[in-house]
């Protein structure tokens, strides 16, 4: 595919949205298996399942933080590259991809050492206790040792999707998930590695995903592959500037996870370890909603970025309508599932009736406002995909800030589990504001860009 005949600027918009969104959504759905499968097997470790599950749950913010590093570069370089392709500046696009690759390598190496050195302080800040330390430390140390592969696979997959190769990115993720599913029971039970085995299986799966996507980007099949280009501080700075919004969004998700665990620890009393374990299960279910939803909006960023660079505002408006409609359908389906099958989902992780009841309650409550995400995600990722990072960041910060306020206000007033209402309150409020803001701002921005 060349920039002259790119379907991003010529194919029917509705068909193009489906062609890019569905593989990206499926890729993220499969990507969820990294955490869900780990937690499923960990929850069934003999005589330690519930404590081990809570220990892995404490590590969730670390996984999110590492993902944020990949997002910083992938969501920074990807939209910039798409815009350059739309302007038919392929030399600029190649420089962006090369410098994105350099940044991914550098950041992953820089993050690994301090995470390992300060692992005890980090984990206890995240809500760990002495009873959970053995399991949290084992998972944390092993997972963090493979940071370079987690960061590279996430960032390069996003750059690949931004070129319109969503199916290729999907295959990379599916390969990793298949390896993870195959190795988990072997490492955890056959080799008796327990929680460490779950993390090691994930690292091996990320190695496979990274190798697959590097082969594609280095093999000449990509529209813009990784080529030898000089280090360009100007491009690096711009990549980080554009990627800062989605990276901050993911990093703040990290803060929110930590805050939830802290409040459950503070107000959960003797049940705090149980509540943290149940929250880990709830977060696994929410990943089934948010990651595929993010796949839809991230996978279609290339349409918006390319046509914004080309000045084709009609196609941008059509794409936004198609993306939002697809998100509404997906979120509606997931809302119904959350309210009806949450108990069955929890039984995958534990057989303890008390844990099943509490985790099911958390899922049903936490997902009450999920339909609001059908507006919030397209607004945030759509603006970011066109390089309009100030608007994307504003829409997202509203939701995150409101969530954080609710996390610290609700438990002192109504008890530890009231923290679960933070999500629906922030989702619904932010959706209303984002919809009004998008309707007001987008037409004005497009009129400026029109050629």
From TrEMBL:
<feature type="transmembrane region" description="Helical">
    <location>
        <begin position="197"/>
        <end position="218"/>
    </location>
</feature>
<feature type="transmembrane region" description="Helical">
    <location>
        <begin position="361"/>
        <end position="380"/>
    </location>
</feature>
<keyword id="KW-0046">Antibiotic resistance</keyword>
<feature type="transmembrane region" description="Helical">
    <location>
        <begin position="138"/>
        <end position="156"/>
    </location>
</feature>
<feature type="transmembrane region" description="Helical">
    <location>
        <begin position="428"/>
        <end position="446"/>
    </location>
</feature>
<dbReference type="Pfam" id="PF01554">
    <property type="entry name" value="MatE"/>
</dbReference>
<dbReference type="InterPro" id="IPR045070">
    <property type="entry name" value="MATE_MepA-like"/>
</dbReference>
<protein>
    <recommendedName>
        <fullName>Multidrug export protein MepA</fullName>
    </recommendedName>
</protein>
<feature type="transmembrane region" description="Helical">
    <location>
        <begin position="239"/>
        <end position="262"/>
    </location>
</feature>
<dbReference type="InterPro" id="IPR002528">
    <property type="entry name" value="MATE_fam"/>
</dbReference>
<keyword id="KW-0472">Membrane</keyword>
<keyword id="KW-1133">Transmembrane helix</keyword>
<feature type="transmembrane region" description="Helical">
    <location>
        <begin position="401"/>
        <end position="422"/>
    </location>
</feature>
<dbReference type="InterPro" id="IPR051327">
    <property type="entry name" value="MATE_MepA_subfamily"/>
</dbReference>
<keyword id="KW-0812">Transmembrane</keyword>
<comment type="similarity">
    <text>Belongs to the multi antimicrobial extrusion (MATE) (TC 2.A.66.1) family. MepA subfamily.</text>
</comment>
<keyword id="KW-0813">Transport</keyword>
<feature type="transmembrane region" description="Helical">
    <location>
        <begin position="52"/>
        <end position="75"/>
    </location>
</feature>
<feature type="transmembrane region" description="Helical">
    <location>
        <begin position="168"/>
        <end position="191"/>
    </location>
</feature>
<dbReference type="InterPro" id="IPR048279">
    <property type="entry name" value="MdtK-like"/>
</dbReference>
<feature type="transmembrane region" description="Helical">
    <location>
        <begin position="96"/>
        <end position="118"/>
    </location>
</feature>
<feature type="transmembrane region" description="Helical">
    <location>
        <begin position="274"/>
        <end position="298"/>
    </location>
</feature>
<keyword id="KW-1003">Cell membrane</keyword>
<feature type="transmembrane region" description="Helical">
    <location>
        <begin position="16"/>
        <end position="37"/>
    </location>
</feature>
<feature type="transmembrane region" description="Helical">
    <location>
        <begin position="319"/>
        <end position="341"/>
    </location>
</feature>
